[in-house]
């Protein structure tokens, strides 16, 4: 059974896989997956911690969570080659982990990720897309106020903006906005930790890897990280670029089934 470790990105945590992790772990036909979700310092279960300013300083907390999960599952650490799957900033971190302990990792999958030594900042974080999402959310709020319509409850404008920015298929889906807003009520990344994570991501440079297979996945409608960023990663690691059509930055939300099949195909 392959152990898959899932890592989310900037200011997101394991809860934001939104069932993608459960569907992977509940497969009843081979290949079977043992799925581990981890949180970065400053996010989710580790929201009370201060986020480091450099990606390599996140690694200890991630390995600790992985090892704790394997021990709880009675799996020997030294005989558990891992498949690391990282979305956005999570992709940067799985590369950092692979460079640190290549002997523990079988394969890494990068989803809509980027690196400072391969792509310019304005491709890595498309500010225009963010501003467009903010404008649309504010416009809808004004229109709803004029018409007397009520947004779904609970509702948080920031979560509605994030969804607009990162999803192509569910950009205005009330159920997802409500779910994201509920998660925010429970706990969320502080503004300061968000800035620290952004700074760490901005400085990331992809390392050379030995003995670890790299798979690169890109969404063709990513409004956050330009698809050219993933193209450059695929060129750097001399690997195939796998494309998800009509899909936004949050690929596990927009194209969950296709992404799951892609993971299966890359292991065959």
From TrEMBL:
It holds the Pfam family Abhydrolase_6. InterPro entries: AB_hydrolase_1, AB_hydrolase_fold, Carboxylesterase_BioH. GO terms for molecular function: hydrolase activity. Residues 4-256 form the AB hydrolase-1 domain. Keywords: Hydrolase. It comes from the Bacteria. This is Alpha/beta hydrolase. It comes from Shewanella phaeophyticola.
